[in-house]
Specification:
The structure holds two protein chains of two kinds. Chain A contains ten helices and ten strands. Chain A has helices at about 45-50, 75-80, 100-110, 115-125, 145-155, 175-190, 200-210, 225-230, 235-240, 245-255; strands at about 5-15, 15-25, 30-35, 60-65, 65, 85, 160-165, 195-200, 210-215, 220-225. In chain A, the strands form two sheets. A six-stranded mixed sheet of chain A has the order 6-7-8-3-9-10. In chain B, α2 links the parallel β3 and β4. In chain B, α2 (about 55-70) crosses α3 and α6 (about 170-195) packs antiparallel against α7. The mean pLDDT of chain B is about 90. Classes of the chains: A alpha/beta, B alpha/beta. At the A-B interface, α4 of A face α1, α2, α3 and α13 of B.
């Protein structure tokens, strides 16, 4: 069984500024992998490299075992069908309703008749916990939490096995964020998803992630959640054992 | 094949095989549609051999089971039913709670006789509302601009300079090229007509008066409306979409002061200068054509041009430029500030901005023509 996502020797440079230097990352099937790092540490650049939105200077990126840096656009399309992405701000198409947003990947990749498309898209909308009448709304009419859920519904449109989430709980109130975490866990278990998630939300990390990769000094240190908190690196110590992290750690050990 | 059906008397057994993913959804629906459940009493489904059973595949199965049950067939599963089905049922159960019944808003529906009247009323109402909004916008811009006159720093000189560069300096090549080509076309057309009458010399009159009074400024304005009117609308529109305008207001900055007035003033300065360049290049183009097509020496062209134009001819053209500049800039900024919600709206309003700017420029030019005729200049 190969890893679902495997990054080896990734190098990203912008001018003289080195963002990643021989960065390695590995995500296994059926796990929730959290990517953590300080602002400007290159989390987004890493995700953009994996999604093929940014071409790295060097390195190999394998998704489902295929090296996407060596693939033709046609082959890449076949890989892209098999994962879903939800962007930080949702990136819902502002001119389309939520239902049409969810249907767009289906229109592009599948030959379905209109009725089936409606049924399946509506199913995804309900699956993420949106009310049925949300389908007819435009993104500008949604609240922040609903935008995140609609973006998740669109990411799930093609029943992917792999999900990339960029800060799925940022900008949500703690209750909505917790509800989103539960939803994600539920879907991950039920649909047997592999999830790669960039997040700053400590609550979210402790609730959902099996393994965590921390980007420090242009490299990634990854380990299981229970072990990464004991990593001696000063940034990781500060992150997990600072004022915000300690309460969560105590809750985890107490439980 | 995704399913195999065996029939014994009134009992059906169905074995599901192969891939049951979203990519096979079309095939699944076709295969299910081909299954004839009529006359059957019971249906036993064996889903144990299905690979990659995802939600879409489960949906196809659920829909089939629902239809079969409605037809009075007793459906059961060999072993436990697939858990994807249970997930589906859970999802649908939660949200099947009736949505709060929404009262359809009482809409007045006019009868056939009143319908045209209602349409006229609605359109007039919208028109008046539009007028009111654009007047409000114009008022805000004027007040902010006048307020800036009192304190020069409020006029944002650096921002104005940037807009003069963007709308004026970078437009020079295209404006010069078009002015040159148009005056060459006019000179050529009139030369071929006038030559037969032996009146070649009047080509000079046509080119100089035409370019100075009308064409120089009008063509420049139309080019600038296409270039900068659209740029203004798109810039402000995307700032609106990105909540940048809201951020300005929330910071206590007047968006008219930092966004609208500098653009209007920048264009008011840039457009007359562009028109003067267009005049010069246009007359130069006419002179060149006369020299090489009509063999008219340059000094003869200059002498004739001196006789043809009066002291006001140049000013009659250039005086219109600031007015056109205000129209273009205000149309662009106003439409930009109207953008809300979606990228489609942005595209629509940018189009409206350009079309309206060009229309307003030509309308104003016609009014100027009437005015100058009355003033006899």
């Amino acid at each position: 069984m190969y890893p679902v996502v495997e990054v080896t020797g990734l190098v990203n440079r912008f001018g003289s500024q080195v963002v990643h230097e021989n960065l390695d990352m590995q995500v296994n099937a059926d796990e929730v992998f959290g990517i953590v790092g300080g602002s400007g540490s290159g989390k987004s650049v890493l995700l953009r490299s994996i999604l093929g939105l940014h071409r790295p200077q060097a390195g190999c990126i394998r998704i489902f075992g295929h090296d996407i840096t060596q693939m033709s656009p046609q082959q890449l399309r076949g890989v892209k069908e098999r994962y879903g992405v939800s962007f930080q701000s949702g990136a819902l198409y502002s001119g389309l309703t939520v239902l049409q947003n969810v249907q767009l990947p289906m229109l592009e990749h599948l030959a379905l008749n209109a009725a089936a498309r409606d049924d399946l898209a509506m199913l995804k909308i309900r699956l993420v916990g949106l009310p049925a009448d949300a389908g007819a709304k435009y993104p500008a009419q949604l609240s922040g939490g609903m935008v995140k859920r609609a973006a998740l519904a669109r990411a799930l449109a093609l029943d992917p096995a792999l999900l990339f989430l960029d800060e799925p709980t940022s900008g949500l109130d703690p209750i909505s964020a917790a509800a989103f975490d539960e939803l994600l866990l539920y879907l991950q278990k039920q649909l047997k998803l592999t999830v790669v998630m960039i997040t700053h939300d400590l609550d979210s990390i402790f609730r959902t992630c099996n393994r965590v990769g921390v980007i420090v000094d242009r490299h990634m240190l990854s380990d299981t959640l229970a072990r990464i908190v004991d990593n001696p690196h000063p940034w990781i110590q500060e992150y997990f054992h600072g004022a915000r992290g300690r309460a969560r750690l105590e809750a985890m050990h107490g439980a | 094949m995704t399913l195999e059906v065996r029939r014994t008397a009134d009992a059906l057994t169905m074995a599901l095989t192969g891939e049951w993913g979203v990519r096979e959804f079309g095939a699944l629906e076709r295969d299910f549609a081909a299954v004839d459940v009529r006359g059957a009493r019971s249906l036993l489904i064996d889903a144990s051999a299905v690979r990659s059973f995802d939600l879409s595949g489960a949906w196809a199965l659920r829909e089939f089971v629902r239809r079969a049950r409605e037809a009075g067939v007793e459906v059961s599963f060999q072993g436990p039913p697939p858990e994807q089905l249970r997930l589906l049922e859970d999802t649908l159960k939660e949200s099947d709670a009736p949505a709060p019944a929404r009262q359809p808003a009482a809409v007045y529906r006019p009868g056939w006789f009143a319908r045209p009247l209602a349409a006229v009323g609605l359109e007039s109402h919208l028109f008046v509302e539009q007028m009111r909004q654009s007047l409000t916008f114009l008022g805000h811009t004027t007040l902010t601009g006048l307020g800036g006159m009192a304190r020069l720093k409020r006029l944002r000189p650096i921002s104005i300079a940037r807009h003069i560069y963007d709308t004026g300096v970078t437009a020079l090549p295209i404006v010069a090229l078009i002015a040159f080509l148009i005056s060459v076309i006019i000179a050529y057309m009139s030369a071929t007509q006038l030559r037969g009458l032996g009146a070649d010399i009047y080509v000079v009159d046509l080119v100089t008066i035409g370019v100075l009074r009308e064409l120089g400024v009008l063509l420049t304005s139309i080019i600038v409306a296409g270039r900068s009117g659209s740029a203004f609308a798109a810039e402000l529109g995307s700032m609106k979409l990105n909540q940048e305008v809201d951020a300005l207001v929330a910071t206590g900055v007047n968006p008219y002061e930092v966004l609208v007035v500098p653009r209007v003033l920048g264009l008011v300065i840039a457009l007359p200068l562009l028109s003067i360049v267009a005049d010069l290049v246009g007359i130069g183009g006419g002179a060149l054509l006369c020299r090489f097509l009509l063999q008219m020496p340059f000094d003869q062209f200059i002498a004739r041009a001196n006789d043809a134009i009066s002291s006001t001819t140049f000013w009659v053209g250039v005086i219109k430029a600031p007015v056109f500049a205000v129209l273009i800039a205000v149309a662009g900024c106003y439409r930009g500030m109207q953008v809300r919600d979606s990228a489609r709206e942005l595209g629509r309003l940018v189009t409206v901005a350009v079309v309206q700017a060009i229309f307003l420029v030509i309308l104003a030019d016609a009014l100027f023509a009437v005015l100058f005729m009355r003033l006899d200049i």
